[in-house]
Amino acid sequence: MNIILEIILLLSKVIYFYLEAFFQIFFPPARKDIKGEIVLVTGAGHGIGRELCLEFSRLGARVVLWDINKENNDRVADEIRDAGGEAFPYTCDVTVVEDVHRIAGQVRQDVGDVYMLVNNAGILYGGSLLSMEPKHIQRTFEVNTLSQFWTMKEFLPYMMKTNRGHVVNVASMSAKSGTAYLVDYSSSKYAVYGFTEALQEEISVLGKDGVRTSCVCPMFVSSGLVKHMRDRFAPKFLTPRETAVGAIDGILRNELVVFVPQKMWFALVIQSLLTRKARDLLKTFGDFGISPQYDPNTTIGAKINKK
């Protein structure tokens, strides 16, 4: 085909995709039904993870709960059962490859093959880079980033084989805007965002259009991870409940990136049009970020495998 015609066709498709995206702002695609599907959530015993499990169960999913804290995990499973849902709790340290492999095998044997994997487990210390101990920086990446590789390698093969499934990776708005006193955390969540984006392209290249990915980017949540949020114009934390409900709405509409609250999508579009100095100025004006909360002696601020 003539190169001029190819360029015209390309531009036509680009314009169409823009119009499609604009249309979906006002008329979003219908939510898919997950009734009877097996949904696995890591970091299920607390905060966002707990609320994700409860909401997925309300929608009729069979929920598999993974957490390093057995007591909390079992408590959430009991909540689901008391409400008439199906829950299958497993104690698992998602940073240990052998543990992930062993427990994944148990899940396949006890419950079945997972349709939706939600990588939610996370940790945050919240201190200046120079105050952080190497073991805490390493732990941040082990929980927030590397664990998602280990769970993915367990559950993605079946999805690829059947060309059916959904992978959800929970990142953060700090994956789109690096934040002071969150250098390690922001870096780990940037990695999650890039991991999800690259994985989606790889799945597409391999022709598995039935396997979906979503990257969830919430603002600060009152789950215990962040203790001293700063925001001049929106000083309140998101609750774990509203974060989970907003995330699931985007996930079930097969959105590639889910912002919670959704209005942050527009803020990021505006931000992309600004120079770096202008962005920094607006961030300073809005006093957006956190105050230091990390104590190397007590590791105040850390919440392991809990969002």
TrEMBL record:
Pfam families per record: adh_short
Lineage top rank: taxon: Eukaryota
InterPro entries named among the record's database cross-references: NAD(P)-bd_dom_sf (IPR036291), Sc_DH/Rdtase_CS (IPR020904), SDR_fam (IPR002347)
GO cellular component, one term: lipid droplet
Cross-referenced PROSITE patterns: ADH_SHORT (PS00061)
Predominant localisation class: membrane
GO molecular function: all-trans-retinol dehydrogenase (NADP+) activity
Location relative to the cell: Membrane
Signal peptide residue numbers: none
Membrane topology: Multi-pass membrane protein
Swiss-Prot/TrEMBL keywords: Lipid metabolism, Membrane, NADP, Oxidoreductase, Transmembrane, Transmembrane helix
TM region positions: 7-27
Keyword Cell membrane: no
Family: Belongs to the short-chain dehydrogenases/reductases (SDR) family.
Record's function text: Catalyzes the reduction of all-trans-retinal to all-trans-retinol in the presence of NADPH.
Protein name as catalogued: Short-chain dehydrogenase/reductase 3
Organism, scientific name: Patella caerulea
